[in-house]
Amino acid sequence: MSKPDFDDIFMELAVNLARRSHCIKKHVGAVLTKETRIISIGYNGPPAGTHNCDVEFPQSGCARDSKGSCSLALHAEQNAILYAVKNNTAVEGSTLYVTLSPCLACSRIIFSMGISKVIYLYSYAEYKGIGSDEGVDFLRKFGVKVDKYEKNLEVHDELI
């Protein structure tokens, strides 16, 4: 029996975490790891203790900002990083697995926190219909290793 490698395990977990999202528009999951250990997890949605978009705004989702993004939501990678830091877990040198490549704002946080590697499943640029993955470009420019996860996973339609 062959054992799955850790990249497969962590990306599959990120995909499953995305299914926990209460966002109407996009479900995204993230897993933050050090070596072979999970140090934090996250999925996109409003800050804990506020509301759930799929309950509060079931037809349209939350209000949009000037760039068309959710005005109330934290991104999956933000939630994973914030939870780790809130619990005094060092994230420097860690690897982030995320179902959607980081936006530019998240990439600045990833870099600033010393996360050394990002592995993503889908392109943020393709999802948003923009020319390039600005977040990926930023991370690579400043020395963070970024890889697209290339294996096939069973993914639910709402994640695509």
From TrEMBL:
It comes from the Bacteria. Its cofactor is Zn(2+). Residues 5-134 form the CMP/dCMP-type deaminase domain. Keywords: Hydrolase, Metal-binding, Zinc. InterPro entries: APOBEC/CMP_deaminase_Zn-bd (IPR016192), CMP_dCMP_dom (IPR002125), Cytidine_deaminase-like (IPR016193), dCMP_deaminase (IPR016473), dCMP_deaminase-rel (IPR015517), Deoxycytidylate_deaminase_dom (IPR035105). The keyword Hydrolase applies. Coiled coil: none annotated. Belongs to the cytidine and deoxycytidylate deaminase family. PANTHER family: DEOXYCYTIDYLATE DEAMINASE, DEOXYCYTIDYLATE DEAMINASE-RELATED. This is dCMP deaminase family protein. It comes from Algoriphagus halophytocola. The lineage of its organism: Bacteria, Pseudomonadati, Bacteroidota, Cytophagia, Cytophagales.
